[in-house]
Amino acid sequence: MKIYTRTGDTGKTGLFGGPRVSKHHIRIESYGTVDELNSVLGMVMASGRSLDRASLSDDALGAVLATLDRVQRELFIIGADLATPSDARAATVRVTEDHVRTLETEIDALDADLAPLKRFILPGGSMMAAHLHLARTVCRRAERLVVALAEQEDINEHTIVYLNRLSDWLFTATRAVNHALGVPDNEWLPPAP
C-alpha cells in the first residue's frame, strides 16, 4: 500500500463509505482531534514506560498504562466511527455504553486511593502526569468538536459520553500517577485579597 495517494492534494478527503469533503469539515476536525489525542496518549505511555517501576510499590502506574493501551484502541474505533457517515453503506464498530461504564469503574478504582479534592489542580507534577493533563485538554477539544458535529449530523450517541468520561479518567489518572510517584498535585490557591 502506498503512503501517498495524491487524492487529497486539492484539500478534500473521502469519508469511509461516503462523499469527499473539505479537510476542514467538522467531521474531519473531529476525528483528526481524536487522532491527535491518541498521539498524546502515545507520549504518556512512552513517559510511563521510561519510569523505573521496579522501584515503585504502587500498582496505579500499571493500571494506568493498561487502561491507556485499551483506550488507544477504543479511540481508533471512535475515529473510524466518526469517519463513517450514518447513512454510509460501510459498517463500522462503535463504542457503547459498556465502554463508558468500564471507564467509570476504573475512575472509581483510581480515586479510592487518593485524598479527596479540595481545590482545583494545576497541570503539572511528574512528566507523565503533565502529559496526561495535555491529553485531557485535547480530549476536551475533541469532545467540543464532536458536540458541534452532532448538532449538524447524526453520530453515535455514546461517542460524546465516552469522550466526556475519558477526560474525567485522564484527570483522575494524573492524580494517581503523581501519588504513585510521590509528587504532590499542584493545587491552585486563590490570590490573597
Walk me through this protein's architecture.
The chain is elongated, with a radius of gyration of 19 Å. The chain is mostly helical and 193 residues long. It is built from five helices and four strands.
Question: Gist?
Answer:
By secondary structure, the chain is mainly alpha-helical.
**Structural class estimated from helices and strands:** mainly alpha
One letter per element, helices H and strands E, the order comes to EEHHHEHHE
Strand content: 5-15%
The major β-sheet equals: 2 strands, antiparallel
Q: What is the end-to-end distance?
A: 63 Å
What is the strand and helix layout of this fold?
Blueprint (H helix, E strand, L loop, with lengths): L11 E3 L5 E3 L3 H24 L10 H23 L14 H15 L9 E2 L4 H24 L6 H25 L4 E2 L6
Antiparallel strand pairs: 1-2, 3-4
Helix pairs in contact: 1-2, 1-4, 2-5, 3-5, 4-5
Features:
193 residues; mainly alpha; two-stranded antiparallel ribbon; two-stranded antiparallel sheet; 5 helices; 4 strands
